[in-house]
Prior knowledge:
The protein is of the alpha+beta class. It is built from two helices and five strands. It has a five-stranded mixed β-barrel. 15% of the residues are buried.
Amino acid sequence: MDNRKRPELTPEEQQRRMRLPRQEDREMLGVVSGMMGASRMKVACKDGKERMCRIPGRMKNTIWVKEGDVVIMKPWEIQGDIKGDIVWRYNPLQARILKEKGYI
């Protein structure tokens, strides 16, 4: 096993590598506004709606989301106006870059 640490990315490199929502997948940005328990949370979405979102099982142990985090969420096919899945969480530096660029 390789024990070398990955070099830290500069803010410019993080901005270039940053994942943005995909329009073809109906993804959108949102901010977590409340924790509901059982890996569910309320997310204030970019389209002005507040949705109950969950973290899918495949991601439950890999991302830790807390109130105030900026996330990418994908509305469900059925009940898409009120429910969705969280597919990505931005770190604080990436969230600041998104706010500076006007995405949020």
